[in-house]
Write a structure and sequence with these properties.
By secondary structure, the protein is an alpha/beta fold. Helix 3 runs parallel beside helix 8.
Length: 221
């Protein structure tokens, strides 16, 4: 009797070990149920000190989402329509009823993005350029959160190594000053958006206009 029990427990243990473990990731149950086909990207809340950051960011967000297989409403048109409807303030838009915003454009979902950082810090011989964003996608019919993510990326120009320490320090200092005076945020913004959208187990599942992957990427998402 005892031998039979031991064998049963051994088989159960081996069976458990053989079961493939699904990697931890975002819970897409609400997203799958809503099955959005179109995404309305509303004006961005800019929490950085750069007043132009939101406009620059908007120019970099549509492409990766559209390439993922979703219809994306033209961001400049959306911004203009909202301004005409008295929703010029991004914070006001983010606190408005998402179902009403979606109804205004006939959208399935609404994407809210906030810029948390968009800055360049100078330290004599180096400058660190940083961008940080938060993303929340809500159902245009219920207002429920379907997906959310965050991204933080830093870039520091690589130093010059010529063998002449003094010359290298001078060149590095000049590069740092240029990066501080004219930081190029756009490559970082594009990279952040692409990584957020495409990140396995945490990004956006393929949309209906990406037919080769639509509803076939369950193992990744």
């Amino acid at each position: 009797m005892k031998l039979g029990l031991v064998l049963f427990l051994l088989v159960a243990l081996l069976s458990g070990c053989a079961t493939p473990h699904k990697p931890a990731g975002y819970d897409y149950s609400a997203f799958r149920a809503a099955n959005p086909r179109s995404i309305l990207i509303v004006p961005v809340v800019n929490n950085s000190l750069d007043v132009d950051a939101s406009d620059y960011f908007l120019s970099a967000i549509s492409q990766p989402i559209a390439e993922r297989g979703y219809y994306v409403f033209p961001v400049n048109m959306v911004k203009r329509v909202m301004e005409e409807d008295g929703l010029a303030d991004a914070n006001m838009v983010h606190h408005a009823d998402p179902t009403q915003l979606a109804k205004l454009f006939g959208a399935d979902s609404v994407l809210y993005v906030s810029i948390e950082r968009w800055d360049a810090k100078y330290a004599v011989v180096s400058t660190t350029v940083t961008v940080e964003f938060k993303y929340i996608l809500k159902d245009g019919h219920t207002g429920q959160i379907l997906w959310q993510s965050a991204q933080h990326i830093e870039y520091q120009p690589s130093g010059v190594v010529s063998g002449n320490i003094i010359a290298d320090l001078v060149v590095s200092a000049v590069q740092a000053a240029i990066a501080k005076g004219h930081p190029n945020y756009m490559p970082l913004a594009r990279r952040a958006n692409a990584q957020t959208v495409l990140r396995t187990h945490y990004g956006l599942p393929a949309g209906p206009y990406r037919k080769n992957e639509y509803q076939k990427d369950f193992e990744q998402f």
